[in-house]
UniProtKB/TrEMBL annotation:
Residues given in the record as ATP binding sites: G26, K27, G28, G29, V30, G31, K32, S33
Identification of the protein by name: Cytosolic Fe-S cluster assembly factor NUBP1 homolog
Domain of life: Eukaryota
Keyword Amino-acid biosynthesis on entry: no
Residue numbers of the full-length protein present here: 42 to 308 of 325
Subunit structure: Heterotetramer of 2 NUBP1 and 2 NUBP2 chains.
Organism (species): Clavelina lepadiformis
Top-level taxonomy: Eukaryota, Metazoa, Chordata, Tunicata, Ascidiacea
Amino acid sequence: KEPDPDIAKIAECLSHVKHKILVFSGKGGVGKSTVTANLGFSLSSNPEQEVGILDIDICGPSMPRIMGVMNEQVHSSGYGWSPIYVEDNLSIMSPGFLLSSPKDAVIWRGAKKNGLIKQFLRDVDWGELDYLLIDTPPGTSDEHLSIVNFLSKAGIDGAVIVTTPQEVALLDVRKEINFCKKLNLPIIGIIENMSKLVCPKCQHTSIIFPPTAKGVDGMAREMQVPYLGDIPLDPLVGKCGDNGKSLPHTFPTSPSAIAYKNITEKV
Ligand code: ADP
């Protein structure tokens, strides 16, 4: 079978990006997009680093809202689509920018969806980047196989997997880890989101989910993948996400912003 010529084009498009990181989650709603956005904000707080975020969660693109650029329109330059700049050194591209209204659900399926994902990987004019974080749909579907295949010549650094601490989420993370191992995709590490509750009044931390036998860190150890750390369940995280604000900039001393800072240093 002839190799897909777009795979080489995608590699060419991303050849000016030093680090390319896929963000996965076993389930929806565990905070994958929020984590991706805040890792982006956290990485770009170093003004020497150029950071991009590519949202290919085609059916549920929430990135424009989380990053406060909801009503922007994408323009094309001679080199492809120009991403939207959230800060001088932080840009983002999302299918959300192609919808006429944020309420429009995207119901692209199968080949059409893959075609769009391919376009997003191949046609964005990122310029020189230090980091590109790629927010993928939840789960391990055929779409993920396509994404990994499309990126097979682009030199992906690896995947970061986001989970919550409950056992039901962990079951899916195990699947996610095995999926990466099967595809020889390196796992940069697991991030445990919404681990404990931080009281908005007194900042006291409480455990709210029943602890699982091993915990996320224990599971990571057992499966021999790095555990990058935990982010508390913090109303400030939701508040920033809903208002399109950067958590690390708005509440830099909050426990969750500090957690992001520590994790960013390991990514
Ligand atoms: P996913 O991308 O996995 O579907 P989202 O990033 O959209 O999940 O997050 C789902 C909801 O959870 C959002 O309303 C978000 O603000 C909230 N959320 C995510 N992480 C946290 C956290 N650490 N503390 C509080 N709320 C959070």
